[in-house]
Specification:
- It contains 11 helices and 22 strands.
- The strands form 5 sheets. The chain has a 9-stranded mixed sheet, with helices on both faces. The chain has a 5-stranded mixed sheet with strand order 13-14-22-21-17.
- The protein is about 30% helix and about 25% strand.
- Helix 2 packs parallel to helix 6 and helix 6 packs across helix 11.
- The protein is α/β, with parallel strands linked by helices and about 425 residues long.
- Strand 6 and strand 7 form a beta hairpin.
- The longest helix has 20 residues.
- It is globular.
- Bound molecules: zinc ion.
- The site of zinc ion (ZN) has 6 residues, from helix 6.
């Protein structure tokens, strides 16, 4: 098997297993463990030393390597992304029965395309918190079987749906069915208890969500696209960690290579683990605490951040939704994102830097800018750059159906992204001063 094939298989396995941000962080930590990285615990004291480390906080993960040849005062090259994706989340009480069918309520997490959750075979995953002998324990939960379903109303009962569009009320129309009057369990929490609890355990609470159990697939006549859930933004997460591992094993560095992947981007990043939290500043502080005397201001001024997230490829059925001067296409190169209103953080300096890196590594690039009469989406780039005051580049791969439960992107672009990240992690300061 060629290297390219095995890498794509590894990515596809990761996409299928990373059904929640907690699973994504866990899967990435296993890749790092295999590569010899050491996990640090935020509740312990960190004795700074050279080597490769990572730390996890609530579905976010930060990993870095301190090569012998580099001082922390040379600055950091940080690749950032997000581990969460829009989906449907289980409520704290999971009961309800109507017309002989057992159901529970959901909350919409982030800007999900609601129609894409209908008529799919849905599993459940996330984390549960249990107690035993007065102690709490956090554990991952995964039910990758079609235990839940949200059936769409038949067209015979909704005659105008194709002309007027589908309107879904999340409280009323998105309650999944999971059992009927013959089912033994009374509520879905009984299902969870039966599936995961050990003898002396009590199920206290959960952060659980639905996922489509259909595995990802290569699509198109030449297998040129990846069809998967959570392309936004797990492709960036996998590419970033793979590039960091490859970078630490073989590249020379001018700055300290780091990857920071955050939970809660899809709901604004304000949380204990989000990009607006103290997670990244705190990790940087702790790395800089030792050696004593490291100049934080100098370090930050010499650092830069690459925020990798999806871009909207021009949709052939809706060209009027795109700025035709700034179209981006799948499998045609990385999209460098610009927005004067700081919805993307890329400045002229950042764009120039990204273009130079692309040219030197022979990676095609495209420039994305939203239509001026449509509000632009955003990402963690502006949030992280505000928090740290470091130069930030927003870029990513073009894709279709962003925030659908099934998205599409180009295979060649994933290879370009990994190549670019590898090149970026080994790069020196942004400007020749
Ligand atoms: Zn995203």
């Amino acid at each position: 098997m060629t290297k390219g094939h095995s890498e794509m298989e590894a990515l596809m396995g990761f996409m299928d297993r990373s059904t929640s941000p907690f699973h994504a962080a866990h899967e990435l930590s296993m890749l790092l463990d295999d590569a010899g990285f050491t996990q640090l615990d935020e509740t312990n004291r960190w004795d700074s030393r050279n080597g490769s480390y990572y730390v996890i906080r609530d579905g976010s993960i930060i990993a870095w390597a301190l090569p012998d040849s580099v001082s922390v005062e040379d600055g950091f090259t940080i690749v950032a992304g997000h581990t969460d994706s829009p989906n449907l989340r289980l409520k704290p009480i999971l009961s309800g029965e109507i017309s002989g069918l057992k159901q529970f309520g959901i909350e919409v997490y982030g800007g999900a395309l609601l129609n894409t959750w209908l008529d799919r075979d849905l599993g459940v995953s996330g984390r549960i918190v249990t107690s035993s002998n007065g102690k709490l324990k956090e554990r991952l939960l995964m039910i990758s079987e079609p235990v839940c379903r949200i059936p769409q109303l038949a067209i015979h009962l909704d005659r105008n749906v194709n002309e007027k569009g589908l309107v879904l009320n999340p409280q009323q129309h998105l309650r999944p069915i999971w059992g009927d009057e013959h089912s033994i369990q009374e509520s879905f929490s009984d299902v969870l208890r039966e599936r995961v609890l050990e003898n002396d355990e009590y199920l206290e609470s959960w952060d659980l969500m639905l996922h489509d159990i259909q595995p990802c697939a290569l699509a198109g006549i030449d297998n040129q696209w990846l069809s998967s859930a959570r392309i936004d933004n797990l492709v960036s997460c996998f590419s970033a960690i793979s590039s960091l591992i490859e970078s630490t094993s073989r590249s020379s560095h001018a700055r300290v290579p780091m990857v920071a992947l955050f939970n809660h981007e899809e709901v604004g990043s304000n949380s204990t683990a989000g990009a607006a939290s103290n997670f990244l500043p705190s990790v940087l502080d702790r790395i800089l605490e030792n050696p004593i005397g490291a100049d934080k201001h100098k370090t930050l001024a010499k650092s830069s951040l690459l925020s990798s997230d999806g871009a909207h490829a021009t949709h052939p059925n809706y060209p009027e939704k795109h700025d035709l001067d700034h179209q981006v296409f799948m499998n045609a190169g990385l999209a460098i994102k610009r927005n004067s209103n700081e919805r993307y953080a890329t400045t002229a300096k950042g764009q120039g830097f990204a273009q130079l890196l692309c040219k030197s590594a022979d990676i095609p690039f495209q420039i994305f800018s939203n239509r001026s009469d449509i509000p632009c989406g955003s990402t963690i780039g502006p949030i992280a750059s505000t928090r740290l005051g470091i130069e930030t580049i927003d870029m990513g791969i073009p894709q279709f159906a962003m925030h659908s439960s099934r998205e599409l992107c180009g295979i060649t672009d994933i290879k370009y992204l990994q190549k670019f990240m590898l090149s970026y992690l080994g790069s020196g300061s942004l400007l020749d001063t």
